[in-house]
């Protein structure tokens, strides 16, 4: 149930970003800074003991996750102004493909069905990219940014699952989001990105809505459930953000993807189902040794 709420929350992320009249990097900064502002009273007043009990390794991993999350936002959010919400979301949510690859490189053997699902999802990615290449090179560049954002998200999910073995959700997200906000603030200042000059009241309301829906209900709940569901299932379920974001964009923004993109989205979702089935299926035990 928590994962369903989280996916519903992040499904509003892309449409809200696309509808907000502010620079992409500024949007990324404010959604994290506002989340830290909401979390600070609870963590600093009631959870200081949890922060003190975080070991050096957990703090460093949480900060690393924050840096990678900043990279994820810095790559993905600009893509939303270059390609459609549906295509950008489909590509950025290819996280399970890269999660599977990283886990394999770290020595974890994955069932064949996981690889089949990941391959099918990647085929869907290529289909989406082909559609956008036919539209414009700008859309294809947006696809590339979204895909890179999905790779960064895989590192964020894996680091979060490692930290959450021993650290509470509130302590982890506080350190992670604070790091993300600081990194994005530095990037905005260095690049000369406007952080509020000329923003309308409607823009600030959308930033608040983005923080509540996508950051607090979305990312924070994902960080909570990853401990029990594992990084593969959690990252794969995030693919459901694709149809959710496409539906919101169609109803709210009137932004309909090309007809040829729909089969690609379906292929990606079928890949999702295969990965989840493989991760949820009991694995065979190794043969017993002896006479």
UniProtKB/TrEMBL annotation:
Pfam families: EamA. Keywords: Membrane, Signal, Transmembrane, Transmembrane helix. InterPro entries: EamA_dom (IPR000620), EmrE-like (IPR037185). Residues 1-18 form the signal peptide. Belongs to the EamA transporter family. Residues 1-129, 141-276 form the EamA domain. It comes from Streptomyces silvisoli. It comes from the Bacteria. The chain crosses the membrane at residues 28-46, 58-79, 85-105, 112-133, 139-159, 171-192, 259-276. The keyword Transmembrane helix applies. This is DMT family transporter.
